[in-house]
Design brief:
The chain is mostly helical. About 70% of the residues lie in helices and about 0% in strands.
């Protein structure tokens, strides 16, 4: 399966970002360590990208934000792919009332204004669900909550693509043969249908990662996503807004990271789509 050069460029950018994010704790200072004597420090051997308004190392925070943003995007894309694949497989294989019900549900979710809906869900108080205060204050809970919120409304594209492919695959001879020898619906969907509808699912999931990063950044920018002191590219932009006229470079670095990451995922997704279409 030959890939266009742009696809390899996207994969290279993502690979370099992933390696830098993983090794940064051993090469860079603590991203949450403050040094008021180094406020707005310029680029130097000590601070590779300078320091922010609290003297924190920008490079360390940028790569910590990369770990958080990429982890949220990958987990959310996986959750959305699982939900969308389940809905699409059941709707496409069974047809009839199940298909009509699930697709009307999908249409209803797609018809909702995405960003306002996510803002409402993110602004809801989870303490009313009886969750312990120490759990609410943990950084991992904020990440998991964001993944669930975005994933529960981001599965619709995968569902429609998987349903369309399933409608085509279920009428083929090998599926009819499996039915004839007594295989159950679950086994047929997992062993015979799912492998043959994986291509559109993989492409849609890859392309969705860039959009998820933008959504996470927007929610964090509005104060409804990842919250300080844990860094994400969105809340780094929020912090930069207060000093954007005196230190505009604080907004440039997270903005450039978001741009490059979304571009890389889109290049990778487009390349996979072209390669699978040729195949």
């Amino acid at each position: 399966m030959r890939m266009p050069r742009s696809t390899w460029a996207g994969a290279l950018i993502l690979g370099l970002m992933a390696v830098a994010a993983v090794v940064s704790p051993w090469l860079l200072p603590d991203p949450e360590a403050m040094d008021l004597g180094a406020r707005f420090a310029p680029l130097s051997a000590e601070h590779w990208l300078g320091a922010d308004e609290l003297g924190r190392d920008i490079a360390a925070r940028l790569l910590q934000g990369g770990r958080v943003s990429l982890a949220v995007a990958a987990a959310t894309a996986l959750l959305a792919a699982l939900l969308g694949t389940l809905v699409g497989l059941v709707a496409g294989y069974y047809g009839g009332l199940a298909d009509a019900t699930l697709m009307r549900l999908t249409d209803g979710v797609m018809a909702l204004p995405l960003l306002p809906l996510l803002i409402v869900l993110a602004a809801a108080d989870p303490a009313k669900l009886g969750i312990a205060p120490e759990t609410l204050a943990s950084e991992s809970f904020a990440v998991v909550r964001l993944v669930v919120i975005i994933g529960c409304v981001g599965w619709t594209t995968v569902a429609r693509l998987v349903r369309a492919s399933t409608l085509s695959v279920r009428s083929r001879d090998y599926v009819r043969a499996a039915v004839a020898v007594g295989a159950g619906p679950g086994r047929i969907m997992l062993r015979h249908v799912l492998p043959n509808v994986a291509s559109p699912m993989v492409v849609a999931t890859t392309l969705s990662v860039g959009n998820i990063i933008l959504i996470e950044s927007a929610l964090s920018f509005l104060g409804l996503g990842i919250r300080p002191p844990l860094a994400s590219w969105g809340n780094m932009l929020t912090g930069a807004m207060d000093v954007v006229w005196s230190a505009p470079v604080l907004a440039v670095w997270p903005g450039a990271a978001i741009f490059l990451t979304v571009l890389a995922f889109n290049l990778l997704g487009d390349g996979l789509q072209r390669a699978m279409e040729r195949r």
